[in-house]
Write a structure and sequence with these properties.
Layout lengths: L8 H14 L14 E6 L10 H19 L3 E3 L9 H10 L3 H18 L15 H17 L2 E11 L4 E3 L4 E2 L2 E2 L6 E11 L5 H7 L8 H11 L2 E9 L6 E6 L10 E4 L5 H8 L3 H12 L3 H4 L5 E9 L6 E7 L10 E4 L5 H10 L7 E2 L19 E2 L10 H14 L3 E6 L5 E2 L1 E2 L9 E4 L3 E4 L27 H4 E3 L6 E4 L3 E2 L1 H4 L3 H4 L12 H7 L2 E7 L6 H14 L9 E7 L2 E3 L2 E2 L10 H8 L1 H10 L7 E2 L2 H19 L19 H24 L2 H19 L7 H14 L4 H11 L22 E8 L2 E9 L4 H10 L1 H7 L6 E5 L3 E5 L1
Parallel strand pairs: 1-2, 1-24, 10-12, 24-25, 26-28, 29-32
Antiparallel strand pairs: 3-4, 3-7, 5-6, 7-17, 8-9, 8-16, 10-13, 11-12, 14-15, 18-23, 19-20, 19-22, 21-22, 26-27, 29-30, 31-32
The protein binds one RNA strand through helix 7, strand 9, strand 13, helix 11 and strand 28.
Length: 824
Amino acid sequence: MAIMDAYTPEEIETRWQRRWADAPPMDAGPEGPEAPRFYLLEMFPYPSGRIHMGHVRNYTIGDVMARFLRARGYRVLHPMGWDAFGLPAETAAIQRGVAPAKWTYENIDAMRVQLRRMGFSYDWKCELATCHPGYYRWEQLFFLQMLEKGIAYRKKAVVNWCEQCGTVLANEQVEGEQCWRGHRPVTQKEIDGWFLRITAYADELLDGLDTLGGWPEKVRTMQRNWIGRSYGVQIGFPLVECEGALEVFTTRADTLFGVTFASIAAEHPLAETLGAAGGRQAEVRAFVERIRSQDPTERAQGKEGVFTGCHVVNPVNGERVPVYVANFVLMGYGTGAVMAVPAHDQRDFDFARRYGIAIRVVVQPPGRELEPDTMEAAYEDDGVLVASAAFTGKTSEQARVDIAQHLRANGEGRTTVNYRLRDWGISRQRYWGAPIPVVHCADCGVVPVGADQLPVVLPTDVELLAGGASPLPTLESWVNTQCPRCAGPARRETDTMDTFVESSWYFLRFTAARLDTAPFDPQELARWLPVDHYIGGVEHAVLHLLYSRFFTRVLRDLGWVRLDEPFRNLLTQGMVIKDGAKMSKSKGNVVDPDDLVRTYGADTARLFSMFAAPPEKDLDWSERGVDGSYRFLSRVWRLALAFEGRALVWADPGAGVVDDEGAGKLRSLVHETIRRVTRDIGERRHFNTAVAAIMELVNAIYDRRAGRVDDDAATQFATATVLRLLAPFAPHITSELWERLIGGPALDRLPWPEVDVSALVREKVEMAVQVNGKVRARVSVAVDASEAEILACALAEQKVAAELSGRSPRKTVVVPGRLVSIVL
RNA sequence: GCCGGAGUGGUGAAAUGGCAGACACGCCGGACUCAAAAUCCGGUGGGGGAAACUCCGUGUCGGUUCAAGUCCGACCUCCGGCACCA
């Protein structure tokens, strides 16, 4: 026997990668044969400079699918690009003195090398970087069109400010009390900025979730909660001490007769007015100032408030109730004022107990009677109304409808909808982002830049300021410009756009990444969109994935796309965990993909990330597990190379040429494995079990070959099929072995193996026989045996007869091919 | 607190209501070797038994069913999301 070449992944893989760079696997350009199309996309990375294990996992899932789908005859669009604007480039610039643009493009180059080294089959000719003017010029155009339609607008608002990032953040980008990048504190600040009217699409975004059957329920639920639609009534409570009325929002109109006070937020415009009118200006001011200076956590400690000295009138019963300023009322939700029903709202209950305000029960639960004096908590569920005039005796459900009706008839209120969702604040007080294309003119105010003047190019020859602030406001040559309207002197907007704006439409641009006369080619959009399968981390459930759904609809309404939902199917992969924690520098448990690839090769890295867990679960990184994957590939290597020097016959020998029983069994197993792997990759997306099936086949081939010198057609067919099934997971080693043993068409040009269903049919099946639910025997019966024959066979078993000991079964169940169940 | 998801060997995990633990890691044993590594073969949920076998076993307690990891009800634990949203 000749000395076998050792498995040397590094040498094999780099050689194949060079070949693939010259002749990419069937790309997805507009020309070519008509075939079913598949847009497969993975969330594009921020070019930090290095890929991490999360990327390896995410992109391996995508690449396995891409290679599989190509073999199945699809034309696959599988692009890769760079989410290239963002703060780390500025931080690096300050720390290391490299310009953000240079730093970013160098990182992109480095990461592209890493991705190629993994063997990922991207359509590199679609590559894009969002920091390129050829990309963001279209975003600026969209912005101008949104401005015209009122979707983009400017307002002064209380917003989240991240001290460390030196910028404003959207609500979605604040998690707990820290910013999404992990910084704290995030404080509240009142500032002028640009917003996109996502709330105008709240209903559509919410209802659209029902059409997304290909999304995980978890993500849909998260978006539903985030949008937070609630139906209720807005009621005007006339003010006693001044003119006008206090507008409140409630979902519990059925408790209206239980109102014993009203509360308004510290930021409510009436706070000052009511304080003055009620003669308690000093107290109110002091309270408001104290509350407003608190950070969100501090503010969430307990319920407190101050009486304004003023009252409002309950429209349904004419009662005067006091108005308080309360720390727990949010200005940002509803009207910033609430009617308070202590008996039926826990917050109001706490507040009423603290300040000695009356508690009035107006909803009684079934089966017991609430007494205000003995209540220990508010009763918040539905019940039957009491002490509610004409509505007494009605159920809560009915009363909500009837009272709303009554208020509407008297002009005292109207039904309305409220959302938890806020408009998307996109202004960032940062340098490394897409400039917002407007100017500020002393005479004309805010004036949009003409569409023919785009792009407003971000200057790249800048000096970053040591303090971290954006250099744009002080960059006179850039910031000073002419007003497009009056031609007078004007200053450019120095805020840049949230980088989530770029990622909200990149998947559309991939279909015509190099087009420079328009953002999209309508024909290409129609051809590819929506994305058939999108893969990424669940952390973007209410960030990128919500923004993209919104942006797609805006572009639809602007006439750019004909599409409601951008992503038909979504796969959210779990995190990569090591030693029980997410990989992070601070925990010191990071595995560097470069080290991994150097030691084991890309194929092993790919195989392990697919084998260790199903994609949606967290993946526990294990050095031993990686080693196991490497050993499996080595095992395949040795198995296949045993044939070196002889041409391996890879065709199915067919049922006829089977020479002995073992060969027939092996051939059946090959087809069974094709069936399993095809289903696991194509339908179930359980790549781990697909790999397990291939391993079983390899084990079976080893079993058959044990002790044999000669290798029959079935063994050769099985070995070749292993290479074909394993190719999407480990493209390098399989390509290498295929070329050495078979040559002919390259493995990645070959169609996916077909299942011969007739090969799956067995003559006999083994079935379990249960007596009273316990397996007592096994019988081997012909597959086409009737139920009666199977039963007779089972009853004839000695063990079964012993169990029966002469009794006759009370009931029998025969599931052909599975088992026989006998009940005594 | 509310909303999701998950609890299966020593470990990662697998199982259209039909023989729980496929596949892999680890461990144990054997072959090869002067020896070790690598490799190949075998064993490996727990209890009992020399063995044939046998009993128990998928977070807990109930239920439906000839049959439940899987369906239903209640609960416990862990993870994730939201969190004074009126």
